[in-house]
Design goal:
membrane, transmembrane, single chain, mainly alpha, 13 helices, hydrolase, 3-stranded antiparallel sheet, Presenilin_C, Peptidase_A22B_SPP
């Protein structure tokens, strides 16, 4: 269980009282923090690259969900309500039963997310003569002219193999709650979030990051809600790495943690800057690399401050100024501020880009980062899911 969004600090699993344990060694802490930073960078880097391929898709059913300025403004409010609701649930109802339901929920989403993540890699290992058959899962409501598709999911034999492999990780997580299985699901959720959730322009990104900056600071420093939920929440919504790995091996249990919201939220902004770089047609990725370095700086500063003050830190407090400020300074130096803020990501895809209809929540809340993946699980293949409540 994560300590809270943005903390790379130790906490207990499933919210149980922390037993007396020796402090982590400097070597163990360095290994844990370094591993967390590396794991955070992987989904951002590869998710951003995959977001470019996804954005170039010609079929509207294969396109990512686009976050508009209206969505961005509502996002912190929805996330706050979800976080507070979970806090009340954990206070009123049995933590054991709630986590059982959440485990089943994330078991299904985790398998789908991990399968989608490994599918492009696995396809390279299948022989050319592999018997690959096509399948379609169709679910409709009504009849005749009123018949409406609810789910229209197309897949093939290779996808079934990926699902089978992902299911092994899912069962491992469900039975053991092992930190490695947790990280595999967490990385898959993060990569899917960065790949499939697109900001339509830089202004929207600033609104989203600015709103969640206030959200993160308030719920971490202003109340104990974030920390309480994070300690009680048993789901792969965070990346963890043991600080006592060198002493206890794979059975280590003194974890450093980082919430997925601290990866996905800056990640979708960094992916937007990569698409902006490509739109400039200068064969350089200046803004992408600048924001990437800014993320490393912000996350490193978070860990440093937390280590100095021995207190939970909201990572977005440091990540947001860095990820917005560094690229903006570069744009000012190059005289490209106007181009940056006039760039419309959705305009380069199709004029009618699907809007975000489900709000993935961040930091100690059930991060439904695979909602978009459920609707459009893959760019290379037509897979869609319609919702009657879609905007």
């Amino acid at each position: 269980a994560a300590a809270h969004n943005g903390t790379a600090g130790s906490a207990t699993v499933a919210g149980t009282p922390a037993p007396a344990r020796p402090p982590a060694t400097p070597e163990g802490m360095a290994l844990a923090y370094g591993s967390l930073v590396l794991m955070a960078l992987l989904p951002i880097f590869f998710g951003a690259l995959r977001s470019v391929s996804c954005a170039k898709s010609k079929n509207s059913s294969e396109m990512p969900e686009t976050i508009t300025s209206r969505d961005a403004a509502r996002f912190p409010i929805v996330a706050s309500c979800t976080l507070l609701g979970l806090y009340l649930f954990f206070k009123i109802f049995s933590q054991e039963y709630i986590n059982l339901l959440l485990s089943m929920y994330f078991f299904v989403l985790g398998i789908l997310a991990l399968s989608h993540t490994i599918s492009p890699v696995m396809n390279r290992f299948f022989p050319a003569n592999f018997p690959n058959k096509q399948y379609q899962l169709l679910f409709t409501q009504g009849s005749g002219e009123n018949k409406e598709e609810i789910v229209n999911y197309e897949f093939d034999t290779k996808d079934l193999v990926c699902l089978a492999l992902s299911s092994i990780v899912g069962v491992w997580y469900l039975l053991r709650k092992h930190w490695i299985a947790n990280n595999l699901f967490g990385l898959a959720f993060s990569l899917n979030g960065v790949e499939l959730l697109h900001l339509n322009n830089v202004s929207t990104g600033c609104i989203l990051l600015g709103g969640l900056f206030i959200y993160d600071v308030f719920w971490v420093f202003g109340t104990n809600v974030m920390v309480t939920v994070a300690k009680s929440f048993e789901a792969p919504i965070k990346l963890v790495f043991p600080q006592d790995l060198l002493e206890k091996g794979l059975e280590a249990d003194n974890f450093a943690m980082l919430g997925l919201g601290d990866i996905v939220i800056p990640g979708i902004f960094i992916a937007l800057l990569l698409r902006f770089d490509i739109s400039l047609k200068k064969n350089t990725h200046t803004y992408f690399y600048t924001s990437f370095v800014a993320y490393i700086f912000g996350l490193g500063l978070t860990i440093f401050i937390m280590h100095i003050f021995k207190h939970a830190q909201p990572a977005l407090l440091y990540l947001v100024p860095a990820c917005i400020g560094f690229p903006l300074l570069v744009a000012l130096a190059k005289g490209e501020v106007t181009e940056m803020f006039s760039y419309e990501s959705s305009a380069e895809i199709l004029p009618h880009t699907p809007r975000l209809t489900h709000f993935p929540t961040v930091s100690g809340s059930p991060a439904s980062l695979a909602d978009s993946m459920q609707q459009k699980p893959s760019c290379p293949r037509r897979r869609r899911q319609k919702s009657p409540s879609a905007m």
